[in-house]
């Protein structure tokens, strides 16, 4: 769904807003893009702003283009303090009969269209294309954002931003800006790929080994201590986010591109997540926004950093939750009579439980930002993270795979966040409707409706930060064997008749909070060297046809495929029963018979209800996953 913005009879004039308004919009831009985007050197940009207002008639058109794009993004993302003078200015701009943010964007295009400089590939055009992509995201135009980001990446390739040897001719400030711009492109690339389910545009194979390395901080003698501390936190937050996106890229390549996952692959990625968790600076720990009031700029940095990290965990562990859901569905339809005892059962349970707990924690942090009154209404990153987490919580409540004592609080938080954002954001309005409809379907389900269950499996109770403010859901993921796992029947003996190996337990649950931020970026938080897929994608592996032995049920016999050596993999196509032909000569699949949904009350989770016969001429055409399958 793409948002449509009409300016009616309004036309861009290129007139700058008054200086007070400009300062508010610029401050909003730098505050609300923290840890996700660092397009400019802030001091150099403010100097450029001063020059434009001192002599607007002689201002360079490319500078004005960038300035108007910053105004547009700053206005869309603005969340000024309630009752402040800044709120009055923002409210006035938003109350106009046409979208002032869209008018700012059209002014930028009129003054110097970055697309027109695409062939020349000037550095400013890369900045402008990236800013355009960010604006399109915030304006609920995700397809356009993806296209503009792709243009920015290819222009950056032309300028050599992905190669460290191309930086030798520039001074220290220019090198820092170019490196941070490339890192911002990398972050947005992984977010768009995970959000839209599309190929990544940046491959590590094509980049220098240190292309994502944090540049050296340049503290100026005249800068105040507060300014230096802010600059340090910004740099650390961006570096931590790059590290998270490396892990997301690894997950997309090794899991989603191949459409299958094993516990071994998952554990390999978990090791990187554990390194991230262990080295997270205390100044960015999520406990800060739960335990005390923080400055909005600092709060946004903490929120963005941690929500992206939790989303990377959800991306990794969600297939295990879906596998568990499919297993319960098999038992429900009688498609499986095997006992729930296997060498991989406790691993699946562990990953699936982490998925639910990470989703719950996502909603807790986002609600804290909403209560702290610094959450923007049009933040595309937070909206996507909250929506993905809400679907996990609602799915768990429907299937009753885990007992969540705080589920109603989490769902209410998700709905309140999305409703708040829906007042200004079209995408939030859409996903809010989906979440509320799902929730109402759960609430209105008859008490007599059959519940999913797995024989022999005790329903665990998840832990939440609302029950224990010091609880960290990630620690559950990093322990190979907890007390609950030792009690699991499948954990008593492994596949080879041996007990699973213990993993060292991490020391503290919550890192100690320091009153001041770190003065430099920890060397251990340097991005790991992970391989990303090429823009063309990874090679395709062969899958089975997903048609299980559950006769007439349309349910795959099992979502776990045992491989040689006792390793098991979750094949995504068996989760949905989507056939994946291994060659051009593969036979066309036959749609399974329809299954009644009455056993689930007003709705079911079985095969999609596809009518047989002449009513659907495309009944034998294989279905493809939607673009948001991730």
SSE map:
Layout: H1 19-32, H2 42-54, H3 61-77, H4 85-94, H5 100-111, H6 123-138, H7 142-159, H8 172-196, H9 225-256, E1 260-262, H10 263-279, H11 287-291, H12 296-333, H13 345-371, H14 380-399, H15 407-422, H16 426-443, H17 473-478, H18 483-487, E2 560-562, E3 568-571, H19 572-576
Antiparallel strand pairs: 1-3, 2-3
What does this structure look like?
Helices cover about 50% and strands about 0% of the residues. It is built from 19 helices and three strands. The chain has a three-stranded antiparallel β-sheet with strand order 1-3-2. The longest helix has about 40 residues. The relative contact order is 0.10.
Shape: globular
Kindly report how far apart the N and C termini lie.
Answer: 17 Å
- What is the H/E string? HHHHHHHHHEHHHHHHHHHEEH
Arrangement of strands in the largest sheet: 1-3-2
- How large, in whole angstroms, is the Cα Rg? 25 Å
Number of helical stretches of at least 4 residues: 19
The helical percent reads: 40-55%
Which blocks of ≥5 consecutive residues have pLDDT under 50? 480-524, 526-566, 583-630
Query: How many DSSP E strands?
Result: 3
Overall tally of domains: 2
If you average the pLDDT, what whole number results?
77
What is the oligomeric state here?
single chain
- Strand content is under 5%
Largest sheet: 3 strands, antiparallel
Q: Look at the helices and sheets and give the structural class.
A: mainly alpha
Keywords: Nucleus, Transcription, Transcription regulation
InterPro entries: Fungal_SecMet_Regulators, XnlR_reg_dom
Organism: Eutypa lata (strain UCR-EL1) (Grapevine dieback disease fungus)
GO molecular function: DNA-binding transcription factor activity, RNA polymerase II-specific; RNA polymerase II cis-regulatory region sequence-specific DNA binding; zinc ion binding
């Amino acid at each position: 769904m793409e948002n449509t913005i009409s300016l009616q009879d309004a036309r861009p004039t290129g007139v700058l807003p008054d200086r007070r308004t400009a300062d508010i919009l610029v401050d909003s831009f730098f505050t609300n893009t923290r840890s996700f985007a660092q397009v400019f050197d802030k001091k150099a940009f403010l100097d450029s702003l001063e020059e434009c207002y001192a002599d607007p008639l002689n201002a360079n058109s490319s500078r004005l283009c960038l300035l108007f794009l910053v105004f547009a993004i700053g206005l869309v993302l603005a969340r000024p303090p309630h009752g402040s003078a800044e709120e009055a200015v923002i409210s006035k701009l938003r109350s106009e009969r046409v979208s002032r943010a869209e008018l700012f964007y059209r002014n930028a295009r009129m003054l110097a269209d970055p697309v027109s400089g695409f062939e020349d590939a000037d550095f400013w055009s890369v900045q402008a294309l990236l800013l355009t992509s960010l604006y399109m995201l915030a304006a609920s135009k995700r397809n356009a954002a993806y296209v503009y980001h792709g243009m920015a990446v290819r222009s950056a390739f032309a300028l050599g931003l992905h190669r460290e040897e191309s930086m030798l001719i520039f001074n220290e400030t220019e090198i820092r800006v170019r490196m941070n711009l490339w890192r911002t492109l990398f972050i947005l690339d992984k977010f768009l790929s995970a959000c839209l389910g599309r190929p990544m545009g940046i491959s590590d194979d094509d980049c220098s080994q240190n292309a994502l390395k944090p540049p050296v901080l340049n503290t100026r003698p005249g800068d105040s201590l507060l300014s230096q501390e802010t600059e340090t936190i910004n740099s650390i937050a961006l570096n931590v986010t790059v590290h998270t996106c490396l892990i997301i890229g690894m997950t997309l390549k090794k899991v989603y591109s191949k459409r299958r996952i094993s516990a071994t692959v998952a554990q390999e990625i978990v090791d990187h997540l554990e390194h991230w968790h262990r080295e997270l600076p205390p100044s960015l720990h999520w406990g800060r926004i739960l335990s005390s009031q923080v400055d909005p700029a600092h709060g946004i940095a903490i929120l963005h950093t941690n929500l992206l990290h939790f989303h990377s965990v959800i991306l990794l562990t969600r297939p295990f939750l879906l596998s568990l859901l499919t297993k319960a569905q098999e038992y429900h339809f009688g498609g499986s009579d095997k006992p729930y005892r296997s060498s991989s059962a406790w691993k699946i349970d562990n990953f699936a439980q982490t998925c639910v707990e990470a989703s719950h924690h996502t909603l807790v942090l986002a609600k804290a930002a909403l209560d702290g009154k610094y959450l923007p209404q049009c933040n595309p990153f937070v909206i996507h993270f909250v929506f993905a987490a809400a679907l996990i919580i609602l799915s768990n409540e429907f299937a009753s795979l885990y007992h969540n004592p705080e589920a109603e609080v989490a769902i209410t938080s998700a709905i309140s966040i999305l409703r708040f954002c829906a007042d200004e954001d079209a995408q939030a309005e859409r996903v809010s409707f989906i979440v509320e409809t799902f929730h109402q379907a759960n609430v209105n389900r008859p008490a007599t409706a059959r519940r999913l269950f797995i024989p022999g499996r005790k329903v665990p109770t998840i832990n939440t930060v609302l029950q224990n403010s010091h609880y960290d859901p990630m620690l559950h993921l990093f322990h190979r064997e907890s007390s609950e796992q030792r009690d699991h029947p499948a954990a008593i003996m492994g596949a080879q008749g041996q007990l699973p190996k213990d993993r060292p337990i991490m020391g503290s649950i919550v890192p100690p909070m320091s009153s001041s931020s770190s003065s430099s970026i920890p060397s251990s938080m340097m991005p790991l060297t992970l391989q990303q897929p090429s823009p063309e994608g990874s090679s395709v592996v062969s899958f089975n046809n997903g048609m299980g032995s559950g006769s007439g049920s349309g349910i795959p016999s099992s979502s776990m495929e045992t491989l040689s050596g006792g390793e098991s993999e979750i094949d995504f196509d068996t989760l949905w029963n989507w056939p994946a032909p291994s060659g051009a000569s593969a036979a066309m699949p036959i749609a399974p018979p329809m299954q009644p949904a009455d056993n689930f009350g007003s709705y079911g989770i079985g095969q999609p209800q596809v009518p047989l016969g002449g009513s659907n001429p495309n009944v034998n055409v294989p279905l493809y996953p939607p673009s948001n399958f991730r």
